[in-house]
Amino acid sequence: MDELAATMTGFARTLRAAGVAADHERTRNLLLALDHLDVTDQAEVYWAGRLTLCASPDDLPRYDRCFAAYFGGVRAAGRTEGRTVTRHVAAGEGEDDEGGSAESTPGTASRTELLRHRDVARLTEAERAEVHRMLAMLRDRRARRRSRRYRAAHRGVLDQRRTIREALRKGEVARLRRKAHTTRPRRVVLLVDVSGSMSPYAETLLRYAHALVRSEPRATRVFSVGTRLTHITGELRHRDPGTALNEVSRVIPDWSGGTRLGEELRHFLKNHDARGAIVVIASDGWERGDPALLGAQMARLARQANRVIWVNPHKGYEGYEPLTGGMRAALPYIDDLVAGHSLAAFEALSERLGHA
What we know:
single chain, 14 helices, six-stranded mixed β-sheet, Rossmann fold, alpha/beta
């Protein structure tokens, strides 16, 4: 039962990342429902999750996509005139199979949960493709900040203009009108190291960047760093991840080269604005330039940004210590040093962006 709870909790976390209202209370209700069902029957698990974890019709297509990715190919299951209808979504398959109940695959969910925590550099091509499909469904719940604009509200400061206009129209002050500040997503600036030492993780990091851009296109900026800084937000706005990555690879001139983070940060701070933004730097810290220059630019960046998060793939390993010259120079100016080696690490990063 502990394994079942861990599996379904991971599934609910995947749903939340995709924008489904699968909060902790709904997850608890799902576990209570599964106590009375056959958990080896995917149809029963599907309907139990759909009835407890979804809050609106908008959640249903997202739920189906996540169920397919998480439980290994079953997108939907229902009962029609006494028969079980199961739709399979294996790669290249577009038609539905109808007939008897699908075979149980109780080990699939556990395999998917294990896949979430594995280092993407050690995955097979098929496993990496599965992780990338799940990454494409990530939806960051970005922290919001107060804007300068106002909206009409029941509570807030007095809206003198609306109150006076209404009084002039009616001949008396019938009601005091109020207003409150609107909110908007906090900007995220993502700098992705595409040097040779980061090549096992660069594609996955860029796919994560694509998911961020698709979620908040107006509040996300992405740059590749290596021997030069390249702005790639426009290329990542394409809806299809594969097409977006092809466009990115076309415009980045320094794939698998060296790393001069200090020089690239100086160029970024000279030509771009990080004020009030959450700046995420994805790099292993192998700096070929002067570490002192990197430290100076990180100090400037920390003064501008709302928060600086450094994503290092090696942070996911037990016993990791930031010993490279670049990491030692940057460490005093980092608010959070987090892992970036697995799907679970990217899910945790998205959660962190929602509270930064």
